[in-house]
Specification:
Chain lengths: 240, 343
């Protein structure tokens, strides 16, 4: 299912006048496509993710999932869309301290009415956490926590995967592993994936890259346009 | 309650501490309730066992409240009250404090001169005095025979013995009466009018409790302590869950971002409070029941459904109210804060 953001405008009240966080921002992500969003700090990357994830309502513009405008719905209906169509991966993984890795996933399972433990195990296996299902966040490394976060986001079988700075708390190698995992999962689960990152190193793993500046989105570029010198890795599918 | 139960297990130290505090508060409230009830009975159980619904006492001078200890009425008041419209029957009531001696045992007692079934120089005593029927006893200088044993009641913390009114006059060395027992007709005149016409105050049995020396002050101060304990309990529970909910803020924002509704989080948080409260209060009430059963062998103490379940219910109610006010804020958590804090 396609995620389509159209002419989004988002304002934050700031003293007498409003601060423009998004200004005619637009983005289209097809199912099975991973789009990276980069840009300087304060350029509106997180705001774009927040609007796409129905955490805030834009002043104008629309968010469409599979063609349906979901941004204008009631708060309860938006909660439901977040539960059933959207998966979030947060900057610091943001796992709940009291829950084991397995329970982080089962919480989502119970919220969407599919508390399937076999599915949770399968996803934890998929992200390489076999044998660590019963550890709590403080017993996991930063990279492992981030991978639990990825598995948790998939537990509700989302159509849209929204990822906020997944590598910022990780070293280069772990960061690359997580980005590679996100790419693979996007292909396997056919999610429309948006990854906010200012790690230009991993942009080659994205299908498209959008750069933001002052709340505006650039025209999407394929990564070889942005970084012509970088050679695609072996597992990279051929581009049209 | 998916998160609630896991949080309880994970932060069990903190919740055990709260549970222990709730448990101790409940223990105190239940013990005080049993004691209040026990002291009340020691003070007025003989009044609640009076054979009539109403009792007339001497109207005290000025605006002061009537008191059994100060009430004295001429004997003819019985007839004058009996002649009032709305009065079906009037019987003399004498109450005095005296000393009962049986063999080498002596005990202070309250003497009630109301029992017209007793012959002159006969006395009916409660079991607890340990005197067998037929025994000769001395009561206020009079030699009496124990005619019957039973009816454990007390008045002003003294066990009550019963005599006929004639015998009572001799024991109390008094020409007058303490009061008059009144049986009113089914459709009675205003008791206040009956009192005004005869220079008395007509009270119901329950209102007459306050005319027993010390009863109102005793019950009032114990009740005030219980109310304070309930208020403190609500505040303690409220304070705990306020801090707890604030600490959980970031977690709650994440769960909201993942699509949990406000109602889901509220139910989860209230369920958690209910579990802690239920465990804490039931433990406390059980301990208080055990202690009360031991204590009532030595002090006036009542353990029954009312003295245990009513304070238990009150504790749970005030606790849930305190928690509800505190955890309401889970509904105001902004899921936006789950995204990398931009400022
Ligand atoms: N909750 C907020 N309230 C007010 N202003 C905000 C808030 N969040 C972000 N902003 C402002 O909006 C602009 C865009 O921020 P953000 O989307 O977080 O950028 P980025 O993620 O690219 O760093 C910045 O100027 C930021 O200060
Ligand atoms: Mg940001």
């Amino acid at each position: 299912m396609t995620l389509r953001l159209e002419s989004l405008r988002l304002l934050y009240p700031d003293g007498d006048r409003d601060l423009v966080a998004l200004d005619d921002a637009a983005l289209t992500v097809e199912a099975g496509e991973l789009v990276a969003v980069t840009g300087p700090s304060g350029s509106g990357k997180s705001s774009l993710l927040a609007v796409a994830g129905l955490l805030v309502t834009p002043a104008s513009g629309t968010v469409r999932i599979a063609g349906q405008d979901v941004s204008a719905r009631s708060p309860a209906a938006r909660d439901r869309v977040r539960r059933e169509r959207i998966g979030f991966v947060f900057q610091q993984s943001n796992l709940l301290a009291s829950l084991t890795a397995l329970d982080q996933l089962m919480l989502v399972g119970t919220m969407v009415g599919r508390p399937r433990e076999d599915r949770a195990h399968e996803l934890l296996d998929r992200v390489g956490l076999t044998g660590k299902e019963h550890r709590r966040p403080h017993q996991l490394s930063g990279g492992e926590r981030q991978r639990v976060g990825v598995a948790r986001a998939l537990m509700g079988d989302p159509a849209v995967l929204l990822v906020d700075e997944p590598t910022s708390a990780l070293d280069r190698e772990r960061g690359r592993q997580v980005m590679t995992l996100l790419r693979e999962i996007t292909k396997e689960s056919a999610t429309a994936t948006v990854v906010v990152t200012h790690d230009v190193e991993h942009l080659d793993l994205a299908d498209k890259t959008v750069t933001m500046r002052d709340g505006r989105t650039s025209k999407p570029l394929a990564d070889h346009d942005l970084l012509p010198a970088r050679k695609a890795p072996a597992d990279h599918p051929p581009r049209p | 309650m998916f998160i609630a139960l896991r949080d309880l297990r994970f932060a069990r130290g903190r919740f055990a501490l709260l549970g222990a505090v709730i448990s101790l508060m409940t223990l105190m409230v239940v013990l005080l309730t049993g004691l209040t009830s026990g002291l009340g009975a020691a003070s007025v159980s003989a009044i609640s066992a009076l054979p009539t619904e109403h009792v007339a006492l001497a109207a005290p001078p000025g605006q002061t409240d009537p008191q059994f200890a100060l009430s004295a009425l001429p004997v003819d008041t019985v007839d004058r009250l009996g002649a009032q419209p709305g009065v079906r029957a009037a019987r003399p009531l004498g109450i005095s404090t005296s000393r009962l001696t049986a063999g080498d045992k002596t005990a202070p007692v309250s003497v009630f001169g109301t029992d017209s079934s007793l012959l002159p120089d006969q006395v009916r005593v409660p079991d607890s005095l340990g005197v067998a029927p037929g025994t000769e006893v001395e009561l206020g200088g009079q030699r009496l025979t124990v005619a019957a044993v039973g009816d454990e009641t007390s008045f002003s913390h003294l066990p009550v013995v019963h005599t006929a009114i004639g015998t009572w006059h001799k024991i109390a060395r008094s020409e007058s009466l303490t009061g008059v027992l009144l049986e009113l007709t089914a459709d009675p005149a205003d008791p206040a009018d009956i009192g005004a016409a005869t220079g008395t105050l007509v009270l119901t049995r329950e209102d007459a409790y306050d005319a027993v020396g010390g009863y109102a002050a005793e019950q009032g101060s114990l009740t005030m302590i219980r109310v304070l304990l309930l208020i403190v309990s609500a505040l303690v529970v409220g304070a705990f869950f306020t801090v707890w909910t604030m600490q959980r803020g970031p977690d709650l924002a994440v769960v909201r971002a993942m699509g949990a509704s406000r109602g889901y989080l509220l139910r989860d948080a209230l369920g958690q409070a209910a579990v802690v409260l239920a465990l804490g209060t039931v433990t406390g009430a059980a301990a208080a029941t055990g202690l009360g059963l031991l204590a009532r062998q030595a002090v006036p103490f009542v353990v029954d459904g009312g003295t245990v379940l009513i304070p238990l219910t009150l504790m749970i109610t005030v606790g849930i109210s305190g928690a509800a006010i505190a955890v309401r804020r889970v509904t105001t958590v902004d899921p936006l804060t789950a995204l990398g804090a931009s400022r």
